[in-house]
Amino acid sequence: MSDLSIKGIAKRFGDVVALDRADLDLARGELMTILGPSGSGKTTLLRIIAGFEQPDEGSVLVRGNDVTALAPAKRNMGMVFQNYALFPHMTVAENVAFPLQMRHASRSEIAERVGWALDTVALGTLGARYPAQLSGGQQQRVALARAIVFDPELLLLDEPFGALDRKLREQMQMEVKRLQRRLNLTTVFVTHDQEEALILSDSIAIMNAGRIEQLGTPREIYAQPGNRFVADFIGESNLFRGRVSSVRNDLLAIEIDGGETLHAKAHEGMAAGDEVSALIRPERPQPATGTGNGPNTFRGEITEVVYLGESEKYRVSLASGVEFLIRWPGRTTGTARTEGAELSFTVDPEDLHIIPDGEARQ
């Protein structure tokens, strides 16, 4: 039995379709990220799970029980918001105790659970402080402690790290991941940050215009996107429209816009004339060696160099006008690659992901 089941959830706001019959299932202890651009419906879906919005259609089931009509306080779900939502006039301990007081827990239970929750988020010595006396990261830990103190069946997080700087955000991501694993908490995490989703998730649901475009593991979503929207949305990409010109010796030859030809591993059911999109992630091309005349070997001019420390990005323009984005480890020795220099590179046919035209819609 799934810990959380979303069945046919639909929601409209006037003429705007916020959710178009969304379906999801989370297993016990799974961390699922709902990822999508602004306006994709991800926060609306989370608010329906939490009970802050009612769906027009569909149902929300927690461990087999239909909670669609229950008020938020009756759903036994912990929630962490981007703005922390702490009570400024209460101490840290009082903020964390609040959900237990609403559940009429005894004083001894409150003291025990609050102590445990604060120790769990490494704030055991700060219970007497007020939110204004804490850093942003500490306030977020208080919000997290308040969300887990009553042993919720589900943990919901709505872009909780959006207000933190990059270094602190990365630290909090790993802390939440460790905490979630240790407590085996079934968790739904909403974000627009692709890197955050790849780091945290057991599974990712990609949303666009109220629809779930693809559901899969981070590796599946990144390496095998199911349609052109997902391929373009997740990570950086070289994404080319083209047509299969031949199928020979387990290789597809694909003529792309601009007149170049790409070779990819043959896909079952694909034939000459099929329209496709071809995806090459920027880290997959490799420097060309030898004569440089094999399949998927290209030569072009570097038109842009971006140094990122651990890596460098190059925009390479071929004579045909086709452009490639390439990301390789940063060079610490030797001559740096510069704008205007020539670069030869090759792409293994297995490193191309082909999206049939039926799934290539934007």
UniProtKB/TrEMBL annotation:
Q: Which top EC class applies here?
A: translocase
What Gene3D superfamilies does the annotation carry? 2.40.50.100, Nucleic acid-binding proteins (2.40.50.140), P-loop containing nucleotide triphosphate hydrolases (3.40.50.300)
The lineage's top-level taxon is Bacteria
Instruction: Provide a Gene Ontology MF annotation, just one.
Output: ATP binding
Q: Which reaction does it catalyse?
A: ATP + H2O + polyamine-[polyamine-binding protein]Side 1 = ADP + phosphate + polyamineSide 2 + [polyamine-binding protein]Side 1
**Gene Ontology CC terms:** ATP-binding cassette (ABC) transporter complex
Q: Give the EC number.
A: 7.6.2.11
Q: Using the record's annotation, list all stretches that form the ABC transporter domain.
A: 4-234
- Indicate yes or no for the key word Ion transport: no
GO biological processes: quaternary ammonium group transport
Q: Which InterPro entries match?
A: AAA+_ATPase, ABC_SmlMolc_Importer, ABC_transporter-like_ATP-bd, ABC_transporter-like_CS, Mo/tungstate-bd_C_term_dom, NA-bd_OB-fold, P-loop_NTPase, PotA-like
Q: Which family is it part of?
A: Belongs to the ABC transporter superfamily. Spermidine/putrescine importer (TC 3.A.1.11.1) family.
Q: What is this protein called?
A: Spermidine/putrescine import ATP-binding protein PotA
